[in-house]
Specification:
The structure holds two protein chains of two kinds. By secondary structure, chain A is an all-alpha fold. Chain A has eleven helices and no strands. In chain A, helix 1 packs parallel to helix 8, helix 2 packs antiparallel against helix 8 and helix 3 runs antiparallel to helix 4. Chain A is globular. The two termini of chain A are 27 Å apart. The relative contact order of chain A is 0.17. Chain B is mainly α. Helices cover 76% and strands 0% of the residues of chain B. Chain B contains five helices and no strands. In chain B, helix 4 runs antiparallel to helix 5. Classes of the chains: A mainly alpha, B mainly alpha. At the A-B interface, helix 1, helix 2, helix 3, helix 4 and helix 5 of A face helix 1, helix 2, helix 3, helix 4 and helix 5 of B.
Amino acid sequence: MHDLARPQTPGPGRRTVLDGVRAAAPIGVAAFAFGVSFGVLARAAGMGRLAPVVMSLTTFAGSAQFAVASILGAGGGLLTAIIAAVLLNLRYGPIGLSVAPSLEGPWWRRAVTAQLIVDESWAIAQRDGGRLDRRLLVGAGLLLFVCWNAGTAGGAIAGDLVADPESLGLDAAFPALFLALLWPQVRDRSRLAAAIAGAAIALALMPFTGPGVPIVVASLACLVGARRPA
Amino acid sequence: MTAVWVSVVVVGLATIAIKAAGPLVLARRSPPPRAQATLEHLAPALLAALVVTQAVGGDNGGFAVDARLAGLAAGAGALLLRAPLLVVIAVAALAAALVRLVA
């Protein structure tokens, strides 16, 4: 796992897009499987075949998409579904701020590259000293985008043939995946403190708020780092 | 337009805008050192929160304790043994599937 956030490249040399693809490959398997289950769930929720596919192409953020499908499928309101999805994706605001200094080129290129940000590609692109590696982000993001969309299309089209993803334990893969991504991040005391504070904030808020809010507020735990300027 | 397509379009546009906001607002400037140090702590804070919400979060908020916890424990064990990522994920899924099979 330790080769995940630090892909195997000879020496401290420049990382390539391909290194990002390689680092994200194991996660791509999970993203594909979860894409299949999103396609299946969305179709079962009455979203049809085309809408889930278009959603994976444009939104590219698993948890928010699952929220929309499950809320609409359970007969919840359109507004509830949209608010839940936007709350779940609000974390990409602060994440985007942290990525900003690492992106290059004109404004439209930076905006397009930013679409490849998902939790996993962002975690893979983290480098020492707080920098992000743009090439790793692009490689990992592209691979995950392809896997997620291929899975969605497969699930939406051939959904009836696929087993219930929960019985396969797929939903349990994600807490472990995020733990594995967290692992190399907590390499000093202040980062460990930020992790503990983030988990504690999420736990404390979960009984009182809808999904999404605990994660957004937990991002405030990064203020632990404000005490020690780099 | 049906509710499904309204949600697809609105959520899609909102997500694209949220993701692009940071890079467009900050441009290529680096934030001041203290803000930079703060942003460096965003990854551990958010990833830890995601572990918690993915492990014990209910469908519509609140808690739901189920086989995911067994999967997380098994995945943590695999991590401690320095297993590669794919093994960690597979072990977690397998443990949860086994618990569901038995329970």
